[in-house]
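Milestone M4 deliverable, item 7.
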Amino acid sequence: MSENDLLRAVVAVACGSGHPAAEDLLREAGVRVIRVVDAVNCERAGVGAVGVVAGSRVLLGSPEFLLEHGVDLSPVAPLAASDDMLLAAIDGRFAGMVLMGGS
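Output delivered:
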């Protein structure tokens, strides 16, 4: 999955769920001229969000959120989690991370 495809998916879920990062993600999609798609069945769940984009289930949130949903995070185990990092999974598999700009 390309970086832009990942961003498109997480923007859709963040916007559809009202996730606090939605505005920043939407702004980045605009900078990259990425067409934002709609997600369905979006919901915000504590420290993350979940929704369906183009038939795939997308999770966005903290490492703990993804682990709670059974996502194997061994590909990112050596990386230190930070408050400005969101992880994404698509169809139950780790798909990437999104570093949010600090204020």
